[in-house]
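Final paragraph of the annual report: two paired records, presented back to back.
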Amino acid sequence: MKLYRPVGINEFELIRKSEMKKFPPRLHEQPIFYPVLNVEYARQIAREWNTKSAPGYAGFVTEFEVDSEYVSKFEIKIVGGYIHQEKHIIPSRHQLKRHLF
């Protein structure tokens, strides 16, 4: 399944340092990894949230593939209009990594 994750400049730099192979660990205060199901929503978050945050005031949209069987275990959350669909995933980092393509 193709998913999208909007990120700010700091998170993007950590992803880039991993050679675009992994997401950085979640922050203690943000334990949920919530990729979104469509690029329109990811762009909206990147534009309306990430570009308003220091440092860098920049937003990026990452696109990645996850094993459909694995990700189907997690509920889809609709958090606004029909395009605002997220998967709330609370795995260990190593667990999710095994299911990324």
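The closing record of the year follows.
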Amino acid sequence: MVIDLNTNLTFVGVCGLNEQVTMLPGRGLAQIAYRFQNGAFKTEPVRILGDANSDGVVNIMDATTIQRYDCKMIDLSDDAAQNADVDRDGYALIIDATWLQRRCSGINAPEGIGKPLSDLSGDSLPMS
């Protein structure tokens, strides 16, 4: 089965059932949340802390995206900028790129990196 992630998918299911699945299309990872609404499941992308380029994967390319954004070379959507704010201080800055580089290298970094924003609470994240 091939699914175009740019289309709006609707799934009919049991009333009140919620689930989250992960799909692996091609080269990227796209996480899709299914939410029951008006008698059908509606899809919506899962926003991930650290996913600055909004491709569904947290990797070194996100650190590069943050660096380019902080140097005013590119713009980010509001959602992407919130994803990029790894330390949750309200700004996507070079320090956020540094946190991603550290995480990608297996060095101490905020614990929530790579997790859905909807799963995180509080203004800041503890260190791992």
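The first strand starts at residue 10 and ends at 11. This concludes the annual technical report; the extension proposal builds directly on these records.
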